[in-house]
From TrEMBL:
It comes from Hymenobacter telluris. Residues 1-23 form the signal peptide. Pfam families: BD-FAE. One of its GO terms (molecular function) is hydrolase activity. This is Carboxylesterase family protein. Residues 63-229 form the BD-FAE-like domain.
């Protein structure tokens, strides 16, 4: 308990140490809260990567990108959404995905609805408890979503076609998409994946779905009727969590149990236990509970479904506002003109070394950086001399660290 207290205190102190001048958010006219943009421009069939499916074929991965029409802000936050369907069905064009992307784009966000690899091997499913197949499907989806995150960071560092702020990328999803978002946000060590999944054979946590060389770290996680393998993957120092879940969900349990419908056996932990875990380890979170509601009630086409959808939208909107005010936020067109280096440290987790990088096209200045352990103690001080350089692990123990640089939010580093 004492260690947890020191960790939370250290994280708060690190954030508080950042210059107040960087906490600038362009919210004039109700931006990110009110639909200030009546029209939305949609870019269809944008390729963000490719990956090998469960059957051995290669699938091109596509997304639809929604932008507020006429927006002049040059660095905007991004929300990446993934559809429901039990990893066997669904589409990025599903009605709910299109609607939620449109609504957040009207607030000023850039949003994306992604497709991801579906399907899994139907052999060997007659196990008494967990089948590895659903877990592997979730890992593949997680890898694809990570590639989508890296896609936007690559765009921000190169062509800047979508005018996004690479520090402010949120992931979310409905049902199966929620599984994926939770894993992107909180699954950061191979040791957290059950051995029966064989994460190495699947390409590791980051996967090979596209856009290598960029971080897949996110600002927050939106879990809509989703679940995951274990609540313990949520750890001190992780990003905020917003969950929406019906208490009578008979497909993805609100608390814990076996996934329902026609899916093979898989035992998971739902929002009713994930959010209390986040509270216990000091992570900002919100759980919107729909009493006696079933699975994904916000996707219903009737009046009740629209009411649930409206509540879900407002819950996400209000939850994300504090994250936009974090130190390091630069969303206004004026502040963006400086094009300061947005430093990255990856992979997360790392084994023998971490790659330090300032994206191409940004202004990098040599500086002294510090690596702090979970208690806030400086364990290494070094010169960051080049835009891209390697930091060896050397004798550092496994665990959570924070990389601190001048005028930058702390970067989370994990060694395993």
């Amino acid at each position: 308990m004492k260690k947890l207290f020191h960790l939370i205190l250290a994280t708060v102190m690190l954030l508080a140490a950042m210059p107040a001048a960087l906490a600038q958010v362009d919210t004039t006219g109700g931006r990110y809260y009110r639909p200030v943009f009546p029209n939305v421009t949609i870019s269809l069939n944008v390729a963000y990567g490719s990956a090998v499916t469960f059957s051995g074929t290669t699938q091109q991965l596509l997304m639809d990108i929604y932008q507020p029409t006429g927006d002049t802000v040059s660095r905007r936050p991004v929300i990446i959404f993934a559809h429901q369907g039990g990893f066997v069905s669904g589409s990025r064009t599903d009605a709910y995905m299109a609607d939620v992307c449109r609504r957040f784009a009207q607030l000023g966000y850039v949003t994306a609805s992604i497709e991801y690899r579906l399907g899994f091997n139907l052999t060997g499913l007659a196990q008494p408890r967990d089948t590895p197949e659903v877990a592997r499907a979730a890992i593949r989806g997680m890898q694809d979503m990570r590639a989508a995150v890296r896609f936007f960071r690559r765009d921000a560092a190169t062509t800047r076609q979508y005018k996004v702020n690479p520090r402010y990328i949120v992931v979310g999803g409905s049902s199966a998409g929620g599984f994926m978002a939770l894993e992107v946000g909180y699954l950061d060590k191979a040791s957290e994946v059950p051995a029966y999944v064989d994460i190495t054979a699947l390409g590791g946590i980051e996967g090979n779905s596209g856009n290598p060389g960029y971080s897949s770290a996110v600002l927050a996680v939106l879990n809509l009727s989703g679940a995951t393998e274990s609540a313990t993957i949520i750890e001190p120092g992780n990003v905020p969590l917003c969950s929406v879940h019906g208490t009578a969900d008979n497909v993805v349990p609100y608390l814990k149990g076996r996934v329902g419908s026609l899916l093979p056996p898989k035992y998971v932990v739902g929002s009713g236990l994930l959010n209390p875990r986040a509270t216990a380890v000091g992570i900002r979170n919100e759980l919107r509970t729909f009493r006696n509601a079933g699975h994904i009630p916000f996707e219903g086409a009737n009046t009740n479904g629209q009411a649930y959808a409206d509540t879900t939208f407002r819950t996400i909107r209000d939850f994300l506002r504090p994250s936009l005010g974090q130190p390091g936020t630069v969303l206004s067109a004026t502040a963006a003109a400086s094009r300061a280096a947005m430093l990255q440290a990856y992979p997360v987790p790392a084994t023998t070394e971490i790659q330090l990088a300032a994206p191409t096209g940004t202004l990098f200045k040599q500086h002294t950086a510090e690596l702090l352990d979970a208690t806030g103690r400086i364990v290494r001080r070094f010169q960051w001399e080049q835009a891209n350089q390697t930091l060896p692990r050397e004798n550092l123990k496994a665990g959570l660290y924070f990389l601190r640089s001048p005028n930058q939010p702390p970067l989370r580093v994990v060694f395993e």
